[in-house]
C-alpha cells in the first residue's frame, strides 16, 4: 500500500513539473511580448508549426466560403490546397517577422495584405495567477497545450508544443471573424491574380 501512495505522489509531482514548465514557458513568452522583444518571441516560437497552423486555418475557411453556395469540386479543393496554400503562406510569412508577430500577440491586431482582423491579446495573460492560467490551459496532445486568450474558445488561443529544449509557441487559433477576414483576402488575391 505504501508503494501505491509513493507512486501516486511521484506521478503528481511529475505532472506538476510538466504543467509548471509549460506555465513558466508561457510566462517567458508573455514577458517577451510585453517587452516588445521580437527576437526573444521568435526564439520562443516554432515558426514552421505556427505557419502551418495559420495556413491550414485560412485555407479551411476559404474552402468553407466557396462551399457555402455549392459543393466544392475536387479540382477546386486541390487548387485551394496548393495555390491557395502558397498564397496564404506568403501572406502569413509577412505576419511572422519578429516585429509583426510580437505586435499581433501584444495588440491583437492582425494586418496582412490588406486584411484587417482582431483577436484577444496574449499580453493580457498574467501567469503569476496560476489558478487563472490553469483554467485557460487544455491539453490537446501529450506534448501540446492550448491556452485560451479569452473567456471561451471562440476568442482564440495559442498552442505551446514541447520541443526537445522546452515549450514553444506552435499555433495561434484565430477567432472565426479573423480567419474569415484573412480568407476573404485570399479570395480577393485569387481574383486579382486570375
Radius of gyration over alpha carbons? 19 Å
* Strand order in the largest sheet: 3-4-5-6
Number of E-state strands: 6
Q: Tell me about the biggest sheet?
A: 4 strands, antiparallel
Number of helices: 7
Proportion of strand residues:
15-25%
Average pLDDT figure: 83
Helix content: 55-70%
N-to-C order of helices and strands: HHHHHEEHEEEEH
Which word captures the global form?
globular
Instruction: Outline the low-pLDDT stretches.
Output: none
State the separation between the terminal residues, measured CA to CA. 72 Å
Topology:
Layout (H helix, E strand, L loop, with lengths): L1 H34 L2 H6 L3 H20 L7 H22 L2 H10 L1 E4 L2 E4 L11 H7 E5 L2 E5 L8 E7 L2 E8 L2 H18 L1
Antiparallel strand pairs: 1-2, 3-4, 4-5, 5-6
In short:
By secondary structure, this protein is an alpha+beta fold. It has helices at 2-35, 38-43, 47-66, 74-95, 98-107, 130-136, 176-193; strands spanning 109-112, 115-118, 137-141, 144-148, 157-163, 166-173.
Tell me what the structure shows.
With about 190 residues, this protein is α+β, with helices and mostly antiparallel strands. About 60% of the residues lie in helices and about 15% in strands. It is built from seven helices and six strands; from the N terminus they run αααααββαββββα. Strands 3-4-5-6 form a four-stranded antiparallel beta sheet. The longest helix is centred in the N-terminal third of the chain and has 34 residues, at about 1-35.
Keywords:
single chain; 194 residues; two-stranded antiparallel sheet; 60% helix; 17% strand; globular
Amino acid at each position: 500500500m505504501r508503494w501505491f501512495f509513493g507512486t501516486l505522489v511521484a506521478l503528481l509531482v511529475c505532472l506538476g513539473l510538466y504543467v509548471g514548465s509549460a506555465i513558466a514557458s508561457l510566462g517567458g513568452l508573455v514577458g517577451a511580448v510585453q517587452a516588445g522583444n521580437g527576437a526573444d518571441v521568435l526564439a520562443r516560437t516554432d515558426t514552421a508549426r505556427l505557419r502551418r497552423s495559420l495556413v491550414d486555418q485560412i485555407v479551411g475557411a476559404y474552402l468553407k466560403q466557396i462551399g457555402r453556395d455549392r459543393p466544392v469540386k475536387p479540382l477546386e479543393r486541390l487548387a485551394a490546397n496548393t495555390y491557395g496554400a502558397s498564397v496564404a503562406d506568403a501572406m502569413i510569412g509577412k505576419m511572422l517577422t519578429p516585429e509583426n508577430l510580437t505586435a499581433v500577440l501584444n495588440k491583437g491586431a492582425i494586418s496582412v495584405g490588406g486584411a484587417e482582423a482582431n483577436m484577444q491579446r496574449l499580453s493580457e495573460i498574467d501567469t503569476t495567477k496560476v489558478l487563472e492560467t490553469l483554467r485557460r490551459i487544455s491539453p490537446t496532445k501529450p506534448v501540446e497545450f492550448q491556452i485560451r486568450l479569452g473567456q471561451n474558445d471562440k476568442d482564440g488561443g495559442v498552442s505551446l508544443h514541447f520541443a526537445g529544449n522546452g515549450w514553444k509557441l506552435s499555433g495561434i487559433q484565430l477567432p472565426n471573424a479573423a480567419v474569415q477576414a484573412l480568407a476573404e483576402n485570399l479570395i480577393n488575391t485569387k481574383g486579382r491574380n486570375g
